[in-house]
Automatic annotation (TrEMBL):
It holds the Pfam family Lip_A_acyltrans. InterPro entries: LipA_acyltrans. The lineage of its organism: Bacteria, Pseudomonadati, Pseudomonadota, Gammaproteobacteria, Lysobacterales. This is Lauroyl acyltransferase. It comes from the Bacteria. GO terms for cellular component: plasma membrane. One of its GO terms (molecular function) is acyltransferase activity. It comes from Arenimonas fontis. Its main location: membrane. Keywords: Acyltransferase, Cell inner membrane, Cell membrane, Membrane, Transferase. It is found in: Cell inner membrane. GO terms for biological process: glycolipid biosynthetic process.
Length: 303
């Protein structure tokens, strides 16, 4: 066993211990961590605050500072819930799901035999969505490889359950994903992860140009697979509702500007359901359109 793998296993043991706490305790700890983050004005708090300045709609009708606290609270709960999901049996995780909306769309897409692309934005708890998909068959998941070898080993250990196939978010990702779709399987891609320049198109997201991954439109156009938005929305009782919704057919348009605009519009509609459940602690707008003269809108304190 290599040193990174050994360190990753030690981290997993720590995650396992936290994951064994009762759900209410985990969510309470997540809320406590959020309060500490707000008081200490951590990087996450600063990024959320800056995103609210860039996208006032992210406040969801709340006062700005109230919205920052709400975003951090959801982020903290999500972090502790994720440790639970990563370290517990799948049947325990699926017990967190109260209802599934739109499952007929998923079943119809799979029955068509051309596979299905699940566009899973960073809303609610996306790790629970992974568990649900893997419980129903092979699921290829695109993920951004951490810079740390320990982090990558840990993530593979935590996410690498039965039926989960991890595909690094690299230029070579198209081939294994296309192969999975040809086999009639499901693949999962986060549509709101900012790619590198050259791997996406700038398209409006809450009115601002955002570099948007073009992998989903390219894959949908090439494979003919259906594209569904999937997300696990946190309820007021701490459990979750899963949703599957057909994407606008324009996401498969050969015009990538049109396709990515349709993709972002779909994500935006989901976020508006409860903006606090979206990952506004992520710097979505760092890269600006070439030739626009715009600078990175996030100050050094957010970096």
């Amino acid at each position: 066993m290599s040193a990174p793998e050994y360190a990753a296993r030690l981290l997993y043991v720590l995650a396992w211990l936290i994951g064994r706490l009762p759900l209410r305790t985990q969510q309470g700890l997540g809320t406590l961590l959020a309060r500490l983050a707000y008081r200490r004005n951590t990087r996450e708090a600063k990024v959320a605050r800056r995103n609210l300045e860039l996208v006032p709609a992210a406040a969801g009708g709340r006062e700005p500072e109230q919205a920052v606290r709400a975003i951090l609270a959801q982020t903290g709960r999500n972090a502790l819930e994720t440790l639970r999901i990563w370290t517990r049996p799948r049947r325990d995780n699926l017990a967190l799901v109260r209802t599934v909306h739109g499952e007929a769309h998923l079943q119809a897409a799979l029955a068509a035999g051309r596979g299905v692309i699940v566009a899973a934005p960073h809303y609610g708890n996306w790790e629970l969505l992974i568990e649900f998909m893997a419980a129903h068959g092979p699921f290829s998941l695109v993920y951004r490889v951490p810079e740390s070898r320990v982090g990558d080993a840990f993530l593979r250990l935590a996410r690498g359950g039965e039926n989960v196939r991890l595909v690094p978010a690299e230029a070579s990702a198209m081939r294994p994903l296309y192969k999975a779709l040809q086999a009639g399987e499901a693949v999962g891609i986060t549509p709101d992860q900012q790619p590198k320049l050259g791997n996406g198109e700038f398209a409006p997201f809450f009115g601002l140009p955002a570099l948007t991954l073009s992998l989903i439109p390219k894959l949908a156009a090439r494979s003919g697979a259906a594209v569904l938005f999937g997300y696990a929305e946190r309820r007021t009782d701490g459990l979750f509702d899963l949703h599957f919704e057909p994407a606008d057919p324009a996401v498969a348009a050969p015009d990538l500007a049109r396709a990515t605009a349709a993709l972002n519009a779909g994500v935006e509609a989901i976020v508006r359901r409860d903006p606090s459940q979206y990952q506004w602690t992520y710097k979505r707008y760092t890269l600006r359109p070439p030739g626009s003269g715009e600078a990175n809108p996030y100050p050094r304190s957010c970096r």
